[in-house]
Amino acid sequence: MDEIKVTVVEPSGERTELTAPTDMGLSLMEFLKASEYPIQATCGGMALCATCHVEVLDGPELREPSDDEAYMLESLPTSTSRSRLSCQIKLSEEIDGIVVRIAAED
Question: Which residues form a coiled coil (predicted)?
C-alpha cells in the first residue's frame, strides 16, 4: 500500500478526506503543510515547539508518544487526551483512516 486516507476535520466541522503517500517517508505534519493547512512547524519536526499539535479524533491506535512528545503536549494549555504532535506521526499503512483536527493556536 503506497497511499493512505487521512481525514481532516475543518474548524467548521466539515471533513476533508485526503490521500497521502506512504512511500516518501513523510510525517503527518509535512503532509498537512504540503496540503496547505496552517501548521507552523517552527522547530522543523523535532518535537520541540508543539506548533503542529493535532487532536486524533478517530482511526487506528497510535504508538505511545515519545518522552519528548509527551513533555511538549503536557506544556500545552489546550492539550487533551487525544492530542499528538503531527511531526511525530509517520505516514504509514498503520495510520490508514486516521481522523485529525488541527488544534487551535495555543
Answer: none
50: left (phi over 0), alpha (psi -120 to 50) or beta: left
Give buried/exposed letters for 51-88 (b at 16+ CB in 10 A, else e): bbbbbbeebeeeeebeeebbebbeeeeebeeebbbbbb
- Number of neighbouring beta carbons within 10 Å of residue 42: 12
CATH class of 3-102: alpha beta
* CA atoms of 6 and 105, how far apart (whole Å): 21
Over residues 1-53, the pLDDT tens digits come to 799 999 999 888 999 999 999 999 999 999 999 999 999 999 999 999 999 99
The predicted model scores a pTM of 0.93
